[in-house]
Design brief:
Helix content: 25-40%
Strand content: 15-25%
Largest sheet: 6 strands, mixed
CATH class of the largest domain: Alpha Beta
Strand order of the largest sheet: 7-6-1-3-2-8
Shape: elongated
Number of helices: 9
Radius of gyration: 22 Å
CATH architecture of the largest domain: 2-Layer Sandwich
Order of helices and strands: EHEHEHEEEHEEHHHEEEHEEEH
CATH topology of the largest domain: Peptide Methionine Sulfoxide Reductase, Chain A
């Protein structure tokens, strides 16, 4: 087995290490200090914030089980790439974000990942992309810190770790172009939707989780305008729901029409909201695009939407949107 390595700096290394330990294909992690000015630093020295070191996690992985591209995508899920020398409440140059590589062969993949993040953000990340100059493992009590101290500090949210578990289950069961272990990729779209809805619902404990599929209103050619289609209820978990939703109507129809994820803190405040259940209080809807669609959202074809409801106000935010978009891509 050919094991490769990459180094991620993303704020306090306790949480970053714990996160990557949960990624299938990662065979080992080691928190430490990277790219500083002298040898064998201690935590006390690095904490003074004048050594040039960044708290960093060495990630060793099996490229047959997880790609460097996916590791980078997951890394950008857990950092604020526009925050300079700060992640959460951790402030200082030792908490800067950076990706450090030990092999020049990895650079094209990393540059592509950074370019994709720039496009998503509409701005260039302040995250460093540099060759690894040096790395020293942290003291033993820092290693596997959150396993040893389950109630210990972590700048990453519990929601982040819950979504990682959901994402990994979807990746392992359904696969895609990404290596996915022992389970073969499922070719049937309805089966994939059913499995994803069940995995999300079980993992996140939402009130309602399901898909609506874009279908023609009546017998018509296979290629029809969106206005001649409706959203039909697909696989779901939760109480009974609306069977059909029109183009541009409600949160689902609007997300379909506008080809973007919509987060609604209070459904009663959303124009044209369709009350499938009076218990629904907040909602998020993520469009599902055809695999052959281009990268420009205006040219992409929506084939379904993932609809998730909560019985509490303001359940969903930008973190839910990022993770659900990533999951839907599978």
């Amino acid at each position: 087995m050919d094991i490769k390595e990459i180094y991620f700096a993303g704020g306090c290394f306790w949480g970053v290490e714990h996160f990557f330990k949960g990624v299938t294909g990662v065979v080992s992690t080691l928190p430490g200090y990277a790219n500083g000015r002298f040898a064998d630093p201690t935590y006390e020295q690095v904490y003074k914030d004048d050594t040039g070191f960044a708290e960093t996690v060495k990630v060793c992985y099996n490229p047959e089980a997880v790609s460097l591209e996916l590791l980078c995508r997951l890394y950008f899920m857990i950092i604020d790439p526009l925050s300079l020398n700060r992640q959460g409440e951790d402030v200082g140059t030792r908490y800067r974000t950076g990706v450090y590589y030990s092999s020049e062969a990895d650079l094209p993949v990393l540059e592509a990942a950074f370019a994709a993040e720039s496009e998503r953000l509409g701005a260039d990340p302040v995250t460093e992309l540099l060759p690894l100059q040096c790395f020293y493992g942290a003291e033993e009590y820092h290693q596997n810190y959150l396993d040893k101290n389950p109630e210990g500090y972590c700048h990453l949210s519990l929601k982040t770790f819950a979504y990682l578990k959901v994402f990994e289950k979807v990746r392992m069961y359904l696969g895609s172009g990404e290596p996915h272990g022992a389970f073969p990729g499922e070719p049937d779209a309805i089966a994939r939707m059913a499995e994803i809805a069940a995995i999300i619902h079980e993992g996140m404990r939402f009130f309602w989780t399901g898909f609506y599929r874009v279908v023609p209103k009546a017998s018509s050619p296979s290629t029809v305008a969106p206005e001649d289609c409706q959203l039909a209820l697909g696989p779901f978990q939760g109480p009974p729901a609306c069977l059909r939703i029109s183009y541009g109507r409600g949160v689902c129809g609007t997300a379909w029409k506008e080809k973007r994820t919509i987060v609604v803190p209070d459904v009663e405040q959303f124009p044209s909201h369709i009350a499938c259940s009076s218990a629904s209080r907040s909602e998020i809807v993520v469009p599902v695009f055809a695999a052959e669609s281009g990268s420009d959202s205006a040219d992409r074809t929506v084939t379904a939407v993932l609809d998730i409801d909560s019985d509490r106000i303001a359940t969903f935010d930008s973190e839910d949107a990022k993770w659900l978009e990533l999951i839907v891509n599978l």
